[in-house]
Amino acid sequence: xxxxxxxxxxxxxxxxxxxxxxxxxxxxxxxxxxxxxxxxxxxxxxxxxxxxxxxxxxxxxxxxxxxxxxxxxxxxxxxxxxxxxxxxxxxxxxxxxxxxxxxxxxxxxxxxxxxxxxxxxxxxxxxxxxxxxxxxxxxxxxxxxxxxxxxxxxxxxxxxxxxxxxxxxxxxxxxxxxxxxxxxxxxxxxxxxxxxxxxxxxxxxxxxxxxxxxxxxxxxxxxxxxxxxxxxxxxxxxxxxxxxxxxxxxxxxxxxxxxxxxxxxxxxxxxxxxxxxxxxxxxxxxxxxxxxxxxxxxxxxxxxxxxxxxxxxxxxxxxxxxxxxxxxxxxxx
Amino acid sequence: xxxxxxxxxxxxxxxxxxxxxxxxxxxxxxxxxxxxxxxxxxxxxxxxxxxxxxxxxxxxxxxxxxxxxxxxxxxxxxxxxxxxxxxxxxxxxxxxxxxxxxxxxxxxxxxxxxxxxxxxxxxxxxxxxxxxxxxxxxxxxxxxxxxxxxxxxxxxxxxxxxxxxxxxxxxxxxxxxxxxxxxxxxxxxxxxxxxxxxxxxxxxxxxxxx
Lengths: 333, 210
Description:
The complex is a heterodimer of chains A (333) and B (210).
Chain A: H1 3-11, H2 15-31, H3 42-52, E1 60-65, H4 71-87, E2 92-96, H5 99-112, E3 120-124, H6 130-134, H7 140-149, E4 158-163, E5 168-173, H8 177-184, H9 188-191, H10 205-209, E6 218-223, H11 228-239, E7 243-247, H12 249-260, E8 266-269, H13 270-283, H14 292-295, H15 297-320
Parallel strand pairs in A: 1-2, 1-6, 2-5, 3-4, 6-7, 7-8
Chain B: H1 2-19, H2 27-62, H3 70-77, H4 92-122, H5 133-152, H6 161-205
């Protein structure tokens, strides 16, 4: 076989071999994890530090503005930010831009509160602590003390209680969500009279303390589409609400200019952004372990190496075979 | 619990069905593809009815309250005339209403957020006393890069000569660098989606990994 034929064969190799290689590289590092070290970037650190500076008197929005198609990238971000907010007892309103995003929001909350997971948060539903509200106990510390004094014990693997209406509110999906954001700049309750569980939002202590987006400290939009821009347009530009993005890697380059212009405080880009947030939580003692995003980073590195090698090999074959002098490859591709 | 197990098996088998496309197009792949589209649409309708149409339109009307809701309700129903050739033109009214209000509400704020703020961010002092050299370099790259990219998209003059010719060539390089960064992130994104599925298959389904 002549050298030119060899390069030609290499250039026209059945692409299914490439898929198979990528498949192998995506599986092996999970079976034999290396745990490659990871540095964090300023864009993610700024979100982490902002959330970390908040407390019980503040509030954030976590917007699940993505569909199942980008679950692998966006969900770990949502889970990480939710855990961080819960650990700091920062009340978190959760919304969704699409009907499918509503399912993502519920799924993310179920994951964080799954009793089978170490470091889970134990939810107390709105109705379950109605008698405490009736007795005027809405301060978080007093509420936890009264709740535990009544014989409720925190499971061993739990990181803490989260009270619906005090620590979190699952507001969910509404159509034309950009107009919902606009409406929430005047009143959250006007847009959401009830939450996703049918609870009256107006009776929630966290809403009484944060009636509109003007009284909210941060909105983190986790998006797989340009939906996140609505938070800038209607939240940031109208009332100056601080915004952070958690976007898919494909979108990340589109939104870096918004960091430079100061319109968003930071951005988690793709699975790596989520992994960085997990690392920051572990380094700062909020979680003992990292989670799915960080676990996937070994695969990410291995797959990138393989793709770089394939690109180099393709170029070597292209120039080595002298195909750059031809107008078209012999195979017509 | 049983439902969870069934759900995981269904999800796993359909994941494999979708990935079977990588070998070649086949009926299993097409079935999975059509089901994704159909179930997504059905789920969206159910959620929208459950969270919006039911509690905010049907329930109040059935309770004899909020008759004013009939106006948006009827306007919404006009969309369905799209399927009736004789009166399909009626569907233009809700569309016109929606487009008109959306334009009115969004135009000023969108201009501010996506044009004026970005212009403002590009108008930075190249150098001021005490500014670190890497910031100065970054400002220069940003300003000249932006100008060069804009020159490339200026088609009223031929791209010849030191200003338009060199400018547009630099512009192409700047744009290519942008595309390169986007391509890198796109590869990362696609691999991330694969990672998510592999984690599901090896973890939730086969319990090989945690």
